[in-house]
Amino acid sequence: MKLASKIKDGRINATNVLLDMSIKEYLSVARDIIKNNEFQRKRVKSSSTVYALLKKDLRSNCTMPPIVLAVKAEKMNHLLNHNDINEEQIKDLFKPDNLIILDGLQRTYTILDLESELVKEHDDETLDRVLNNSIRVEIYLGINKIGILYRMLTLNTGQTPMSIRHQIEILYSDYLDKSINDITLLRETDSRPIKNIGDYQFRDVIEGFNSYLDRDELGINRNELLENIQNLEKLALENSSSDLFKDYIITYNKFLSKINSFDEDWAVNKENLNISSVFGKDTLHIFTKSQVLSGFGAAIGKLKDNEVIKDFGTISEDIDKLILSKDNTSFDAVMNILLCKLDVIKNKAKKIGLEQRMFFTYFFRELFNPNSDSYLNIKQAIETGFYKYSSLI
């Protein structure tokens, strides 16, 4: 391995180093990188004509474009200035646990496939020649997660862009393994139902948080490159002074706790309702659905853009002042009003989930907008939010 050059990437404030090495040296770390790479995409089928051709070319000592790696940010903490890094320090960092693949995953699989084929063919001469071929590897040093995603998007413009959901999941997957103010985020594979205030499905929180970033409650259904990059830039800008994802879910959980405090034992009594179906059986199962989380995210984002609120801190203070109504309506009656509105949407909507998100967006906008007649009034916000939703449908 030899250091060929070193330049600074001013766009993401990182250092890019170019290394010359043998394929054998690269595979010594690549085998383990791809086993535990949270950023990688699915493997392209090995029958792909392009990668079949690459295997053939590698036997003839072809030169590939550089494979691009990054050193995880937490592995750089001992280096005060990544711009002054020397060759020995780079070699020390060149270990599987330190590295992720930004560009070249499919090529890496192809090289490993070729190695396996040559071993099965007992073609030691060709195998030795291939493993000793030189390749170039770029490594980004001092790059944070947002920078990683930005570079992955711009490096892979010829491929299907990574979805917004995948991006945000990558950024905040760390929270799956630790509690946030007694909030637990559940994986789909956990096989554990939501049982307590503070339990959320990670996928639903991700969708709600993306609605905040995108100021759009309609769900994650777009993945165009420019939109992805703009969302990352927005996240980088807003996230500079606080952890937006953490602020989002803590604030929402405070809202849910406030709602639950009006009647901790409330559950739907179907005998009192003349509706075709129930959106949720109790407070917990109504307000942990993705439609509500997305409506909350989109509403807060729009209020912020309109300079009606400053940040999630403003909403957190407002939650403490929430009332059910000004006419002493009971919690059961207020929740029944909500469920009746949602039943109307279900029976009339062409796209039920989409229109439920729209309704909850208007509900939260009315509830937390100081200029609204429904400000901090839950019953009135339900009525006015539904009226505004209905006027657009």
Overview of the molecule:
It is a single chain. This protein has 393 residues and is an alpha/beta fold. It has helices at residues 23-33, 49-58, 87-93, 105-120, 124-131, 145-155, 164-172, 202-214, 225-238, 244-262, 283-287, 290-305, 312-319, 331-348, 352-368, 378-392; strands spanning 2-9, 14-22, 67-71, 99-103, 134-141, 184-186, 199-201. It starts with a strand and ends with a helix. The longest helix is centred in the middle third of the chain and has 19 residues, at 244-262. Helix 2 (49-58) packs across helix 4 (105-120), helix 14 (331-348) runs antiparallel to helix 15 and helix 15 (352-368) packs across helix 16 (378-392). It contains 16 helices and seven strands. A hairpin with a 4-residue loop joins strand 1 and strand 2. The chain is elongated, with a radius of gyration of 26 Å.
Summarize the main sheet.
5 strands, mixed
Poorly predicted regions are: none
Q: How many individual β-strands?
A: 7
**Distinct helical segment count:** 16
Distance between the termini: 63 Å
Strand order across the largest sheet: 1-2-5-3-4
Tally the structural domains. Answer: 2
Helix content: 40-55%
Shape: elongated
- Tell me what portion of residues adopts beta-strand conformation: 5-15%
Order of helices and strands: EEHHEHEHHEHHEEHHHHHHHHH
- Kindly state the mean pLDDT as a whole number? 85
Class by SSE composition: alpha/beta
User: What is the CA-based Rg, rounded?
Assistant: 26 Å
Protein name: DUF262 domain-containing protein
Organism: Phocaeicola faecium
